[in-house]
Amino acid sequence: MQSQKLIPIIPILSRTWLIYKKFFSLFISISLMCGVFTELTTFVFQRFNFHHAGIPLIIEFLLVNFFSIAFIDASSKIYLAQRISLREVLDRPGEIYWRFTAVSLSTLLMIILGLQLWILPGLFLATLFTFANQLVILEDTKYLESFRRSVQLVRNSFGTIILFNLILVCVFLTMFLILHLLTQNYSGLESRLGKIFSIMIMPFFVIAQVGLYFEIKKRDEPQ
Predict the structure, then answer these.
(1) Cα dihedral value 126, 218, 160, 75, nearest 10
(2) Exposed e or buried b per residue across 51-86, where buried means at least 16 C-beta atoms within 10 angstroms of its C-beta
(3) What is the helix (H) or strand (E) element at residue 145, kind and residue range?
(4) What's the pTM value of the predicted model, to 2 decimals?
(5) Closest residue by Cα to residue 67 from 113, 20, 24, 33
(6) Cβ of 198: how many Cβ atoms within 10 Å?
(7) Which long-range contacts (CB under 8 A, 24 or more apart) does 84-91 make?
(8) Degrees (nearest 5) of the Cα angle 163, 113, 42?
């Protein structure tokens, strides 16, 4: 790998927070729709006593992919200072949905396999393919090209991207730990608040990842 280039992590996170606040209504609308549809799926299968756990998980995975495309498309339009509307970003998945899903599923399976092999290979693959599914939206890449392009973007900033992802994970886990400590004595409350928290925090993570992509591209491929 070539010498790594410094990426300003704190400024990216600061800008992420500003974007999240400014476009809160847009992102929370997408996140709420994602939460409602996934909860509805769970409710339906529980209501009809469907005991095959695999099917609901597959449906939820497909739903999350749909709304992930909307999140990424909205974030990229904001960073590029383009016109944006809820209707437009919800229309975006129709064009590239199955390609995005194929890349997301392949990435997930490779990471899971890597984690089974003493964890480190999984973390390596998770870092290497950080941008694989996002690139389907951001650069309209094809299936194999998405993985090659992600490796190209990551290779000069591997350590920084690991640190960036660890910061996001630590923030997420810390807030969930605080939530657990505050609600552990209230039956059912932790689960409900956890779902609300997930809806609130999901857009922030996506905006941050897209911001990281644009920062790396700006540093490595100046116009």
Answers:
(1) -50
(2) eeeeebeebbeebbbbbbbbbbbbbbbbbeeeebee
(3) helix 143-154
(4) 0.89
(5) 33
(6) 15
(7) 84/23, 84/26, 86/26, 86/29, 86/30, 89/26, 89/30, 90/30
(8) 90
- Dig out the tokens for 10 from the structure: 């704190």
The dihedral through the CA atoms of 128, 129, 135, 137 has a sign that is negative
The residue ranges of every structural domain in the chain are 9-220
Q: Report the length, in residues, of the chain.
A: 223
Shortest CA distance to 75 belongs to which of 154, 132, 12?
A: 12
pLDDT (tens digit, 0 to 9) for every residue of the chain, 223 residues total? 444 457 889 999 999 999 999 999 999 999 999 999 988 887 887 777 766 667 878 889 999 999 999 999 999 999 999 999 999 999 988 879 999 999 999 999 999 998 888 788 888 999 999 999 999 999 999 999 999 999 999 988 898 999 998 998 888 888 888 877 887 777 677 777 888 888 899 999 999 999 999 999 988 876 6
